[in-house]
Structures are given as structure tokens and as C-alpha cells.
Amino acid sequence: MxxxxxxxxxxxxxxxxxxxxxxxxxIPIGGAMDRFAMRVANILVGxxxxxxxxxxxxxxxxxxxxxxxxxxxxxxxxxxxxxGEAKEGWSSFSVKAGQKLGFGFLKSGARIYIAxxxxxxxEPDLGSRSTYPIGALxxxxxxxxxxxxxxPVGNGDPSSAGQTVAxxxxxxxxxxxxxxxxxxxxxxxxxxxxxxxxxxxxxxVAPEADRMGYRFKGGRALEFVEREQxxxxxxxxxxxxxxxxxxxSIQVPGGTEPIVLHRDAVSGGGxxxxxxxxxxxMDLIGQLQPxxxxxxxxxxxxxxxxxxxxxxxxxxxIREELA
Amino acid sequence: xxxxxxxxxxxxxxxxxxxxxxxxxxxDGVSAGDTIGLVEVMKTFIDVKSExxxxxxxxxxxxxxxxxxxxxxxxxxx
Lengths: 323, 78
Prior knowledge:
The complex is a heterodimer of chains A (323) and B (78). Chain A is an alpha+beta fold. Helix content of chain A is 15%, strand content 29%. Chain A has 2 domains: 2-165, no CATH class; 177-313, Cyclophilin. Chain A is built from 4 helices and 20 strands. Chain A has a 7-stranded mixed barrel. In chain A, strands 7-6-9-4-1-11 form a 6-stranded antiparallel sheet, with no helix packed on it. In chain A, strand 13 and strand 14 (213-217) form a beta hairpin. The mean pLDDT of chain A is 96. Helix content of chain B is 0%, strand content 49%. Chain B has strands at residues 2-5, 10-13, 29-30, 35-41, 44-49, 54-59, 65-67, 72-77. Chains A and B meet through loops of A and loops of B.
């Protein structure tokens, strides 16, 4: 009834699609950084799309299966073997009790999603199994996976093995990765030169980027429009009177290094946010390695909504082709 | 000659701390499981360990260099 973790990898965690509804209380939405990949992994093994799986970043775990099941791994490109035999990503395959799944070196992307038929059956917290270590919610005792963990798995459908997602329906970031941005409430805090510079420059992913936020370096520092310091705001021109942050919002403390707030981000604070990455591109951020190049691309609301619809259409097509 | 590869992408360091000596120098003995460097990513330092025993030859990736998963970090003579 379980998975045994022989090697944990790095910050491997149980994730589903998240726990929306508590952000106003400071509890982040959580869930897979690349929700598209998580959904597709679940579809491949015949699970509901919101079933829980494992998210592993940069390094794969080694998993020993205690029962027969169907497994699929999506997201980053990372070679894998089942008892030494090579297996393909974005495909479902049968696993027998006692077999071991291991991974080689990451080739592209950043995070893999491992779905198991029946789904991971740890106890949900606030309606989700997603692990939020800072708040000790979800997963195994609210923490990331460690060596020797035994992870419960539900009963699944063994008939879903042998399916593959066509390569045109897989999605990963380009080179440089293009991330579309909708300018937001505080856009007017920047000078016109800074507004243009933000989109002209090539940025690189900082090594400290994680589930809370992705930090970018290398572009020109942003210049602010002069103002009188508002009552309650900090003295730095990037400070505001404390406000709410949204998923995907881009704050730039001190005007130097943009941080995109991701699934485990704080819900508010005293930095201005120049805008937000559109929802259709948030999954791509989950697949960015440190030191990779990124270009921010300005879009308007109509383009953002069209992009969201395109993503939905892609997912619909996968559901139809794998049905 | 055997390569020690980076298990993951990040920033590679030769030393446990900036003021310390490198983990290994040319000619040092290496046992399986010895730490030869660190890779920093997501505010975490991950030990890079040699899987085999031998004699340390040289660092290939520079101290403080960005590295990718599978990149050769150091060489040793088994």
C-alpha cells in the first residue's frame, strides 16, 4: 500500500493542485509549481487531476514500490530507470511490488512530477495534501520527504499503463524563457526608462529561487518616480504602505532584483509589485534552473486571457487523447 | 581518471567556508563518501561526495562557478 523512499532527492515533497481559500490568512495556495505537469501525470495514471503526487526538484528520489501500480513522470527531462531498465517521461508504465525507480542527471527543466495510480494518500490539511514546510501543513508531518519515509498510496486503476503524451502537448520554457507580464497597480511608480528597461534586459534566475519566490538578476536597476513618502510606508522608493500580494506578482525590493512570488509565497507586505506574471506562464517558472536566461514580455489583459484559454485548450486535448 | 559530476545545478564551491582551505588538494587521498565540494541552490548547501576511492587530481569547475547537473566538478585517479 505504499512507496518507500530509499533516497529523498532534494526538497522532494507531496503536492497536489494546492489549498486555495486561505491566502487572506497568510496561508499560501501551495501545490505543484508546474500544475500542468502535475495534472498530466495524474491523467496518465488514471487519477483525478487533483490527486497528490511527488514534486522533486533538480534531483530525483529513489523509490521502492510496495505494491503493483501504474506510474508516470512528467515535467523536467530527467532520465529514469525501473530496476535498471530505462523508462520514458510523459508516459505511464506498470510497476510491480518490490521494483525500484531511480533517476539520472537532470537534462532540462527543473522539477519532475511523479504520479502513482490511486494517488498519494497522506492526510489532507485544509483540503489539500500539498506540503507547506514553513506552516507544517500537508505531506508527511508537514515536511519534505526524508530517507526511509513510507508514503501511503490509494487504490488505483491498473489499466492506464502504456499511454504517452505527444511531444507537441508537452510544455517547457524556451531559451531564453519568455515570461509574459501584465503591468499592475504600482506600474506608475517606475520612470518610463525603467518601465522599458525591465522588458529590454535579459535576466538570469538566481540560485536562491525556490517554491516561495523566483529571484532574477542581471538587468538594470529600476528607477522610481520621485514621491513624498506615504504615511506608513518604508523610506525606500520600492516601499509601499503594506498591501496584498497576488500569486505571480513581481516585487523588486530596492529596485534591483525582481522576485516572482510563487506557490508558497507570503500574502502581503511592504514592497511595490510592478505587475504579475500571467497565470498561463507560472508553470514555466517551475521549470527554470538557476543561471538560465529569462526575458519578460509585456502583455495586456486580453492577451493574458487568450493565453489562459490556450493553456486550457491544450489540457482539454490531452484529456481527449488519453481518454 | 574518474570524473566527479555535479548532482544538481547551482553554484559550486571548493571550500566549506570562504576562509577555509579547499576540501581536497592534488595528491590527497579520497575515500568513497568523502566530500569534495559544495553546490549551493535554493539557499541550501549540498555536499558533493566522491562515490569511489582514489587520489585527488584537480578541480575542473572553478570555485564559485555556476554549474549544471552532470557537469564535471573534479577529477581523481582511482
